[in-house]
Amino acid sequence: MSTSDAAPQGGLHIAVLGASGSAGEDIVRSLHRSSLAVGAWTLVGGPAGRRRSLELDGVDHTVHGFPGADEVAELVADADLVICACPPAVTREVALSITEAGPALIDLGGAVLGQGAFGVGLAGGIDEERFRESRILSTPAAPGVLLATLLAPMVPLGLHSARGTVMVSAGVDGREGVEELSAQVVALFNHADPRRVLYPEGLAFDLHAQVGARTPETGWTASERRLALELGAALRRPPADFAFTVARVPLFTGVAASVHLRFHQRVEAAHLGQLLAHLPVLRLEDPVPGPRHLDESATARVGRLRDDPGGDVVHLWVAADNLRFGASATVVALVRQLVSNELL
């Protein structure tokens, strides 16, 4: 097996920060499998990264250790595009220095939301003028991607508001979340004290109705308020149109949501079903598979469409893989848009 930092020359030079993590690795593999021409890779681990190489078609690509925030821009300066799949605090620390060095940047998870253009990839276009000015393109985390992709086709139907509950897995917290949940499950089966770092109150065989600290004035958490802002930006609507409780469930992968849609004029569940049946990235399916069955699927599932007994709301259920749908498919779609619009 040969070792290389780059693929054969020609095409885009893409750098990925956080390539040692679950999301970063899956993004690299998805871009490699896509029809996009990638001529060179610069792969950089996150601050806690352990992986030293990543194999693509028999070639080992070096995953550089994270050099520190001050040195990252120099390491990726020759890239056309840098994809940040690292913790939000790291992205906020390095984003401007990277774009000042030359490359464009995709911010996975919306860490620098408001500093550049915003897009979901699977749910519409991007603000090209804003991107040209900033060279930054932010996209939300998996819950925002899933809900924006679901809700975008509803806007032309007269969507008034959307409410509901989003359930996120340990996988949304990356490889560390999956490993801690696994350790807690094993420890509880063996009557031992489980490791409690990310989930000090324990997650195995439990459910957290609150993810993160809530704001005393409103009772909503930062993740819930951020989700409303992301949906507002993606759909060009007031954030107050969207209110979702974010809960954490003891699953290793996936994101799912129970959604209640209200329209300015009555829209029946059967009509929405006809619309959803023709969307390429959402598959209408009843019963909706659980997140475990959607592992590595780039298509979300939606179903359980029901008219509210009161007559003015449609209820539904939607689920997806947080990595393949919520991160990798979004990034591939965004890169395609940037290339086709000659922004890279």
- Runs with pLDDT <50, length 5+? 1-8
Structural class: alpha/beta
Instruction: Quote the average pLDDT.
Output: 90
Gyration radius over CA: 20 Å
Tell me about the largest β-sheet.
Answer: 9 strands, mixed
For this entry, what is the oligomeric state of its chains?
single chain
What is the string of SSEs from the N terminus onward?
A: EEHEEEHEHEEHEHEHHEEHEEEH
Topology, number of strands: 15
Question: What is the helical fraction, as a range of percent?
Answer: 25-40%
Percentage of residues in DSSP E strands: 25-35%
What count of helical segments does DSSP give? 9
What shape does the CA trace take? globular
Termini Cα gap: 32 Å
Q: What does it look like?
A:
The chain is 30% helix and 25% strand. Strands 1, 2, 3, 4, 5, 6, 7, 8 and 9 form a nine-stranded mixed beta sheet that branches. Strands 11-10-12-15-14-13 form a six-stranded mixed beta sheet.
Characteristics:
alpha/beta; nine-stranded mixed sheet; six-stranded mixed sheet; 9 helices; disordered N terminus
